[in-house]
């Protein structure tokens, strides 16, 4: 399971011309699910994201988490994060969780995230999403849990 986190000043997902999720200051999370992933791993990852300190505190250091920074989370499924890219010139998506399983797990993780944090927005699983963002910094981190 992988998550690419971007600290943003604003972000939104548009599907078929409609905004499906939108936040102001916060974290844009691209979430990739692998074949071996499960809900327990997802809980650990969501908990880590919520506690991860990469917002500036009063001293200008990355000391605040998203809650302390009064931010939001935009959670977007992205199976391409699971691609193997070490060999050849085309990504291998073999490690990604099959779509039906991934959709069910993604929905469970969204529900869990929303139960733990008030401001969680989402894209639409497997949709052709247009993601708009203003990266703050830029600050981007890749998180994984095993």
Automatic annotation (TrEMBL):
Source organism, top-level taxon: Bacteria
Keyword field contains Amino-acid biosynthesis: no
Swiss-Prot/TrEMBL catalytic activity: glycyl-tRNA(Ala) + H2O = tRNA(Ala) + glycine + H(+); a D-aminoacyl-tRNA + H2O = a tRNA + a D-alpha-amino acid + H(+)
UniProt keyword list: Cytoplasm, Hydrolase, RNA-binding, tRNA-binding
SUPFAM superfamilies: DTD-like
Predominant location: cytoplasm
UniProt subcellular location: Cytoplasm
GO MF annotations, alphabetized: D-tyrosyl-tRNA(Tyr) deacylase activity; Gly-tRNA(Ala) deacylase activity; Ser(Gly)-tRNA(Ala) hydrolase activity; tRNA binding
InterPro entries assigned to the protein according to its UniProt record, in alphabetical order: Daa-tRNA_deacyls_DTD, DTD-like_sf
GO-annotated biological processes: D-amino acid catabolic process
Pfam families (alphabetical): Tyr_Deacylase (PF02580)
Keyword tRNA-binding: yes
Function: An aminoacyl-tRNA editing enzyme that deacylates mischarged D-aminoacyl-tRNAs. Also deacylates mischarged glycyl-tRNA(Ala), protecting cells against glycine mischarging by AlaRS. Acts via tRNA-based rather than protein-based catalysis; rejects L-amino acids rather than detecting D-amino acids in the active site. By recycling D-aminoacyl-tRNA to D-amino acids and free tRNA molecules, this enzyme counteracts the toxicity associated with the formation of D-aminoacyl-tRNA entities in vivo and helps enforce protein L-homochirality.
NCBIfam families given in the database record: D-aminoacyl-tRNA deacylase
Domain notes: A Gly-cisPro motif from one monomer fits into the active site of the other monomer to allow specific chiral rejection of L-amino acids.
The family this protein is said to belong to: Belongs to the DTD family.
Subunit and interaction comment: Homodimer.
The name this protein goes by in its record: D-aminoacyl-tRNA deacylase
UniProt organism field: Acinetobacter nematophilus
């Amino acid at each position: 399971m992988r998550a690419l986190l971007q600290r943003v000043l604003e972000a939104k997902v548009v599907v078929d011309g409609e905004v499906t999720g939108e936040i102001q200051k916060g974290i844009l999370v691209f979430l990739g699910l692998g074949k071996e992933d499960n809900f327990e791993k997802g809980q650990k990852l969501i908990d880590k994201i919520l506690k991860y300190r990469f917002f500036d505190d009063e001293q200008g250091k990355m000391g605040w988490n998203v809650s302390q920074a009064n931010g939001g989370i935009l959670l977007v499924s992205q199976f391409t994060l699971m691609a193997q890219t070490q060999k050849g010139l085309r990504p291998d998506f073999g490690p990604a969780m099959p779509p039906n399983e991934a959709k069910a797990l993604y929905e469970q993780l969204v529900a869990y995230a929303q139960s733990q944090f008030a401001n969680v927005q989402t894209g639409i699983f497997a949709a052709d999403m247009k993601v708009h963002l203003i990266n703050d910094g830029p600050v981007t981190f890749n998180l994984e849990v095993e």
